[in-house]
Amino acid sequence: MTATGPFRRRQRLLDGTDFRRVFQQSDPPRSSDAYLTLLARPDNGLGWPRIGLAIGRKVTLRAVGRNRIKRLARESFRAEQAALPPLDVVVLARPAAAAADNATLWASLARNWKRLRQRCGQSSSSPSESTATS
After folding, report:
1. Where is the signal peptide (predicted)?
2. Over the range 15-45, which residues count as b (16 or more CB within 10 Å of their CB) and which as e?
3. Whose CA, among 6, 11, 24, 94, lies 20 to 30 Å from 73?
C-alpha cells in the first residue's frame, strides 16, 4: 500500500464546476461494487488524472469514518495515477464502506481503478501489479 509522491493541488477536482462536468455526462464510464462507485470523465484536457471525493454523512455520521475512506482513496489514487489516462474521477462511497476494513477498501479501489482503465481504453496493468510480479 505504498504511494508515490505527494498529493498535489493540480491532482484534485477543486470546485463544483469540475464535479458537475463528471456528474452531468450522459453516460460516464463508471465502476461500482458494494463499497464504492467511481465515475469518470475521460480526456480531461490536462494530460494527467484528477480525483474528487464525495463521501457524505449518509455513509457514516462520524467524520473520522469519512476521513478514513477519503485517506484510503487518496493513497490508492497516488499509487495508481501513473497507470491512469488523463481523466477526472469522482469517488463515491456507499454505507457498507464505513464497516469495511482498510484492506477490503484498498482491494475494492484496486478493482475499480482496473475497471476504469479498461473502460477508458488503457491496459489493465498497474504499477503495483507490475512490481509484484517482478
Report:
1. none
2. eeebbeebeeeeebbbbebebbebbbbbebe
3. 24
